[in-house]
Amino acid sequence: MQTPAFWKNRYGMEAHPEGGWFYETFSPSLKKTKRSLCTSMMYLLEENDYSAFHRIESDELWHYYDGSVNVLLHCLTPEGEYDLKELGVHNKQAVPCVLIPANTWFAAELAHKSGTFALSGCTVSPVFDFDDFEMAD
């Protein structure tokens, strides 16, 4: 297991608008013409970081890579039902890959805060576009 500083430096991660740190690993959308298959990024949360409630118009697949703790994904379905998903490998309830369906409101935080971090990846299909992104008030 590496440290948050290692991952930030290795990928030159930047602060993400919804919280945490990110590095875009694959984005064919630079042409801005036709939507491509997907985009992908590395996403880091440490200690008190969180991803604020938001939704996008595409499916988002989260992958767990490294860290000292699992990630809690708080989801509100389009029908208004709450669903807690646990991303990681640190207990039997957690899974290393979680799908967040399109148009689901969701937020992410670490299961435990002090001295912890989690490195995950997010793959969005079709391609992520900030025009399809909505942050909650």
Produce the secondary structure layout.
Blueprint: H1 4-11, E1 14-15, E2 21-26, E3 39-46, E4 50-56, E5 59-67, E6 71-76, E7 82-87, E8 97-100, E9 105-110, E10 117-125, E11 133-135
List keywords for this structure.
137 residues; mainly beta; 11 strands; globular
Task: Describe the fold and architecture.
With 137 residues, the protein is mainly beta. Helix content is 6%, strand content 48%. It has one helix at residues 4-11; strands at 14-15, 21-26, 39-46, 50-56, 59-67, 71-76, 82-87, 97-100, 105-110, 117-125, 133-135. The strands form two sheets. It has a six-stranded antiparallel sheet with strand order 1-2-3-10-5-8, with helices on one face. Strands 7-6-9-4-11 form a five-stranded antiparallel sheet, with no helix packed on it. The longest helix is centred in the first third of the chain and has 8 residues, at 4-11.
Summarize the structure.
The protein has 137 residues and is mainly beta. It contains 1 helix and 11 strands; from the N terminus they run αβββββββββββ.
- Helical proportion, percent range: under 10%
Radius of gyration: 14 Å
Strand order of the largest sheet: 1-2-3-10-5-8
Total number of helices: 1
Q: Strand fraction band?
A: over 45%
